[in-house]
Write a structure and sequence with these properties.
Blueprint lengths: L1 H74 L1 E7 L7 H4 L3 H18 L10 E8 L1 H11 L2 H17 L3 E5 L6 H13 L5 E7 L7 H4 L6 H6 E4 L14 E3 L62 E2 L5 E2 L8 H10 L8 H6 L18 H11 L47 E2 L15 H4 L2
Parallel strand pairs: 1-2, 1-4, 2-3, 4-5, 5-6
Antiparallel strand pairs: 7-8, 7-9
């Protein structure tokens, strides 16, 4: 009996020990699981806070961008770029000078505003206009074709255009065909992706050279709606296939081409010289300057040189009588040589300049008739270094004093060494005498003495 009880107690003790061990393991498992859940909760809380902070940050950025978009909606602008070499303003506007420039700017502004009425928010857009042109080239062109009124008024017109509107500029791009093109292409590239630039209007459709610049945008619907073209006098052939809208503005630009040729001298001219009479035969001159010229009219040789080498009775070189050009021709020549521009003697008088684009003197415009005579006489104001001993039939410089016996410069005159020379022609040098002294100067005629 006692033995059985002891065995039973031992069994129960072992059972209690197992139960305590299981409880211990269970509690330790609960603690471990709790610790794991607490760690996971901390991580979840941290991630949640990060998400809250990130969401708050993006909300702030979204609000900032929304504010900026609202600002661009009211601060957007339209950019109008015009190649002024191809889009010439009406004569009636240019002739008014500064007032005409202001009127042209106002007309252009009104036309642009009407053309963008259908665009959302366009009422708030600022309008920027930049006209790029070769001003000197236009001045020379006007002078060449006899548009002297436009020539005189053009600079005032440009100033009036620029001053009339705060965001309008008429920019002198400098001399050279591609100057204005280069500026317009670069500005298009700069502004086409500017979020504030809502629309770009281009006055370039006269020149097919601009088409490659527009090619990258013709397949982009957004860019096609952003860009429009001003209709020129003659739309370039390659522009017909482009999808951009073409708009026409009336009463601003010329509706006829400029003439390519200058008007005849004996016709009434539309310039300030219109009232001047056609050139008359040269008046009688002093015996000192008189020559038995081949005729009493302007010579028509072109080029003027090489010409005859004329000598007086003492075998001294004298200058051939070329005639007396009209005052209009003299004034026109002055316009070509204004602003320090120098014409090339070799090109205009000999047609033999081989320097090409490296020539430091101007080959344009082509001189004809009385202008050529006026230029040849101006070249003779520079003394040939060989003077009366010169036998070069291509020498364009002077060999006797153009002032003759009336010269008051005495010893300060470049021709003082030949003041004694009788300018009357006696005979012509023989071919064997040609090619002696004398030289050809590229630009002396443009400067005078």
């Amino acid at each position: 009996m006692d033995g059985n009880m002891s065995s039973s107690l031992i069994d129960r003790l072992e059972a209690f020990k197992r139960s305590d061990e299981e409880r211990q393991n269970f509690i330790e498992g609960l603690i471990e699981s709790n610790n794991k859940l607490e760690n996971e909760l901390k991580v979840a809380n941290s991630d949640h806070l990060d998400q809250l902070n990130s969401r708050r940050l993006w909300q702030e950025k979204a609000q900032s961008y929304e504010n900026k978009l609202n600002e661009t909606a009211t601060n957007g602008f339209l950019l109008c770029l015009i190649d002024g070499d191809g889009y010439l303003f009406e004569d009636s506007l240019i002739n008014q000078g500064a007032a005409g420039g202001g009127e042209a700017a106002n007309r252009l502004l009104n036309h642009i505003k009407r053309s963008i009425q259908q665009h959302e928010g366009a009422i708030h857009w600022k309008i920027i206009v930049r006209v790029h042109a070769n001003i000197e080239g236009l001045l020379k062109k006007f002078a060449y074709i006899g548009f002297t009124d436009e020539e005189k008024a053009l600079r005032q017109f440009v100033a009036g255009f620029t001053q009339s509107q705060p965001l309008f500029d008429f920019v002198d791009a400098g001399q050279g065909k591609e100057r204005a093109d280069h500026k317009i292409k670069e500005q298009l590239s700069l502004f086409v992706n500017n979020i504030q630039c809502k629309h770009i209007m281009l006055g370039v459709a006269h020149d097919n050279g601009y088409v490659p610049t527009l090619d990258p945008y013709k397949s982009n619907p957004g860019k096609v709606s952003q860009i429009s073209l001003l209709k020129p006098l003659h739309l370039g052939r390659e522009f017909y296939g482009l999808p951009f809208e073409v708009v026409q503005f009336d009463s601003i630009f010329r509706t006829a081409e400029l003439p390519n040729d200058r008007p005849p001298y004996k016709l009434q001219n539309r310039s300030a010289y219109a009232s001047k009479q056609p050139p008359q035969p040269p008046p009688p001159i002093s015996p000192r300057k008189a020559q038995p010229a081949l005729n009493n009219h302007l010579i028509t040789r072109n080029p003027i040189y090489p010409g005859p080498v004329l000598l007086n009775k003492d075998d001294e070189r004298v200058d051939e009588y070329l005639g007396t050009p009209s005052e209009f021709a003299e004034e026109l020549l002055k316009s070509y040589t204004s602003n320090g521009n120098k014409l090339c003697n070799i090109h205009h008088l000999l047609q033999r300049c081989n320097a090409g684009p490296r020539c430091p003197y101007s080959h344009e415009p082509t001189l004809e008739g009385e202008e050529l005579i006026a230029f040849a006489l101006r070249a003779r104001l520079t003394a040939c270094h060989a003077r009366s001993e010169c036998r070069n039939s291509m020498c364009v410089l002077g060999h006797v004093c153009p002032r003759g016996v009336n010269c008051t410069r005495k010893n300060t005159c470049y021709f003082c060494k030949v003041h004694h020379v009788d300018p009357r022609v006696d005979h012509e040098a023989t071919e064997m005498e040609y090619g002696g002294h004398g030289f050809i100067k590229a630009s002396g005629g443009a400067d005078g003495e």
